[in-house]
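SEC24 homolog A, COPII coat complex component (Electrophorus electricus), 764 aa
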Amino acid sequence: ISSLAALSLQAQAPEALRVVNLLQERNLLPPGPIPAPTPCLPQDLQKLNCNPEVFRCTLTSIPQTQSLLNKARLPLGLLLHPFKDLSQLPVVTSSSIVRCRSCRTYINPFVSFLDQRRWKCNLCYRVNDVPEEFMYNPVSRSYGEPHKRPEVQNATIEFIAPSEYMLRPPQPAVYLFVLDVSHNAVETGYIDVVCQSLLENLNSLPGDSRTKIGFITFDSMIHFYNLQEGLSQPQMLIVSDTEDIFLPTPDSLLVNLSECKELVQDLLKSLPQMFAKTMETQSALGPALQAAFKLMSPTGGRVSIFQTQLPTLGIGALGSREDPNQRSSAKDVQHLSPATDFYKKLALDCSGQQVAVDLFLLSAQYCDLATLGCISRYSAGSVFFYPSYHNQHTPAQTERFQKDLKRYLTRKIGFEAVMRIRCTKGLSIHTFHGNFFVRSTDLLSLPNINPDAGFAVQMSIEENLLDMQVVSFQAALLYTSSKGERRIRVHTLCLPVVNSISDIFAGADVQAITGLLASMAVDRSVTASLTDARDAMTNAVIDSLTSYRTSVLAIQQPGLLAPACLRLLPLYILGLLKQKAFRTGTSTRLDDRVFAMCQLKCQPLAYLMYLVHPSLYRLDTLINEGPQNIDDHIISQPRVLQLSVEKLIREGVFLMDTGSVSFYFWVGRNCNPVFLRQVLGVQSYADVPLNMNHLPELDTAESGRTRAFIGWLREQRPFYSVLHVIGEESPLKSIFMQNMIEDRTESALSYYEFLLHVQQQVSK
């Protein structure tokens, strides 16, 4: 009888709550991308809701009380991608921006109009007057319909701000490039790439007629460049006393780009040769950063630092903390926190002057990213990492560096920004994740904001949400555009409130939960230990499935049971445990580990998921897989496969998409020679070259189909992923295999063993 009763229960439950026995169902992965769950809201509200790629919550149904949330044992938080490149963004110019007089919430689609003249705030419930000019709708050119204004019809909107939103006149775009020119740096050849990329993209730097640019180079000394209009060539000024940094000619080191473009181009053409013969091995990074801070303080702007080794001289000098013998020890990983607070303190000084610092680390040796990364983390900058970089020896890295630089130099940028996240009365935000400085309890200081930055926040329920059907969250980003306009981008999300634990589970967003847990685990490994962080992630799975078993399931059944909406949680958490940031027992360089942690903290969720669970596709059978018409191109859509060696058959060709860094194009030993000829242009498996990074453009249907599919994957991300063609003898095979997270390794459980471990704990 019990199984019949269970069947009838399941028939009533929504698909999200379908009971899945994880130990029996092996094919859990959906064939394609996993959509965010849709909140259970009335249709008229839901159609106005915020795009989940910009703003989403770990729970799309918010528990009525903290005790109900505690009982569900699921994390509550928001994930944001606030400055994402959007194809459609309504922009409103208005002399007065309508906001709640009490809590300063911007008017949005989820407020209620009591009548034409009054609106009720959806965050604090205050009743506000509708100002006279809001009665006129600029879109329909009609009067007396405030509820049809664009602000009330769009959950994401941008305002051109009037003068009261400025503390000072909007700053110009200011770009300062600070380059390591020590012997080590010159050896890598990176300087040629940076100068070439700048020459090619100089006219595409975001800005206007006021844009300023400057350069500093450094080794054991700091070199400034006078680029003042009227000079026949750039003039190098050397400051050798790194103990007491001063600016030799303060007014001509940052110059107007359009007025001094020829001098800037001259400098970029001559820089790579200037240090070609250098024997300087020291690196005075700290003093160079102090110089950059002094130069940028009056205006604010962006500092781009290129560094190839540990800083060895002057303030901020560091010693090596890595013991290569400890790279794979099962004991705890040391030195995940900074060795000195110099870089954090300087970053906070920068933040106060609206300066962000981006760090490009190109190095084969240990550079102590845990310490250097602070300069970007607290100034709202970004970190780019190219381990073992060398122009000639690592062509794939060089290509990625070139493509990343082009995106970096030309992508949209916001200056002197602040972001505030507000939520309905009763909810409170207590922890923020990402790169920024928290200026007051809920104001994030972002000297720069870029379209590739993600943020996360943790929340709690401070007062019961008893009489509420819905709650709302609003993120407002105030920034100066590169054209000198003060703008406010506002995103508003509305979610239902529920009072049953099964409804909480039904609305769980497994990817958002994974993303938030990843950020929390990074913090935990730095404040406590890596072991603590790993245990906390495993416990998150055990706790939520225990709660589901005891509080949601009416009938106890054997096995490890999960609701369908959380069926991938154990797999994703296992992926995190095997990810570079958190893995143990596999040799992992300290900088690689720290960089992986940086990525997890500040990648938007869509890109973060590649790091947790790469996508594996079979390519030699593309013809039969559901082609989709995308922008008038037919693109095959192969299904996503499990990350297990059993899926790799020797007759097949597979593509693994690991997101930001690489595609691995795996060729099986017994692959059909016709495919090899038509796609790779080689006669047999033995002819596949070891270091192939591009597919030849062959005039065959197979080649077109394969390149179209990879091109389509590439178009969906801002960064460039290099393609590596690999065979069974390839040196990259081990990296490819490390991503097979369902398989057992010497130091880590297989997916099935992990499920057994979780089941044992859940059944206690």
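The longest strand covers residues 486-498. Residues 1-12 have pLDDT under 50 and may be disordered. ok done for today
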